User: Fold these one by one.
Assistant:
Number 1:
Amino acid sequence: MKPEDTLQAGAAVSNITPPLGASLDGPISKPGPATHIHDDLFVRCLALSDGQTTLAIAVCDNTMIRDDVFAAAKARVTELTGVPAKNIMMTATHSHSTPRGIGISQAPIDQAYLAFLSQRIADGVCRAINQLVPARIGVCTFKKPEHLHNRRWHMKPGSVPNNPFGQSGEAVRMNPPRADENLVEPAGPTDPQVTVISVQSRAGAPLALLTNYGLHYVGGVRRGEVSADYYGMFCRYLTERVGEGLQDPPFVAILANGASGNVNNVDFGKAAGRKWAPYEKMRLVARDLADAVLEATANVSYEGSPQLAATTGKLELAIRKPDSQRLRWARAVLTRGREETSHPYEQVFAHEAIFLAGQPDHTILELQAFQIGDLALCAIPAEVFSETGLAIRAGSPFELTAIMSLANGYHGYLPTPEQHALGGYETWPARSSCLEEDAETKIRAEMMCLLAALKAQGHATETQ
């Protein structure tokens, strides 16, 4: 049996705010140069160690970050601390008002910012490891459904507009007109579970609170402004409530994104109400979630020697590449002027078809799982749909399980095969949705294998 009170923990933040003028890439995040920093961006880090195994988690205020940026950061951490890459989990929050850590549009990639980003992520993790002190940890979960709405809706037959490829007959529409007469019902669930890891020093001083919640983002940012969205507001509010002034090292609040690929903060089944001022709604959501976290953790039980373990697996998946007919369509679209397009995203997806045609036939994803006592964290490098998160949790051998989306890389949306059959934005082939239609099934199966291996590893350790 392991001796009691072996846990050490450390937490730190590292500033990853871009300079003014940096490109806020892509149509979703209001393209164009950054003209103002509304609030700084950070990577927030937590390290846990039992003297034999060290785990590190880094959550970055960024829309999505590509594999090699994270890989370089992990290599740097390993070089400086000796912690192996498989024991380091790095994720993006998915704020839509940051530079993207990946190129998924026609805009040039800001290589200087990506190098800066990788370095600062590594710095944050190393600082958390440097600040390890004797600690205790508690984990709890609760449900917070009121801010979550599935953004994909079943529509009445014939009411869904043609997709960018000129095809009709899709059954689902993403972010449809609110309270539209053609709405039928949401095309999937949401995952309302909130998972909280609370860490204190052995003397009882708060060190960190890591929260996981499946909300895509909130939004309401002025064009050209950089913001961490509600993730940053949540962390600032918790720090004000929990942090003990000039405590050294400072308390660190962290909010990671769960299974939210098909989730929105907007209920499209209801007519629009009041008009929110910029940043107003994200502030409301952040405070409400933070208050719920504080209430849930008020009576959490702490332990000083949780089982810590990590495992990883690699999965090869096919890329959905365009056939000859789609390529002819794409080339024809790109020879026409924008004024001749029949769909607002026609040119975008024509460019994407040409891009995908030049990509390898397969890609390799890294999946990862951590054990922290009775909790398993499942890291998936994609925008995971809610039903996938619910299915993994239902089949997990652990008492508590949480999904860390956009982790260790980015490979687009991850619709289930059933959602692929319904159509809609998240299924349209592009860099933002490039994996084979059975990718979700294969990823979920591999994750269940990793969880089983992690559980068996824990049983073996307990009997030694």
Number 2:
Amino acid sequence: MTSSMELHIGKKGLTDEFLDDLHRRFEKKSNMSIKISVLKSARESKVDVKNYAEKIISRLGEKYTYRVLGFSIFLKKWRKSRK
């Protein structure tokens, strides 16, 4: 069974603290997905949301995938690397 949670990216954007917290949350549970809502204060267009997703995945590694729907990013951690 997968568990999920929701986080928000606000006016500060992607900070090191946010990325470290995200990594810690994934390390605590093996099969998890996280929804990240990008608030209006952190974006101008949907391109910004895609850029945030790319930065998050490059920081987390190959075991993670993402999907962008509207102004939300859905992250998933897998057991093995995905390419």
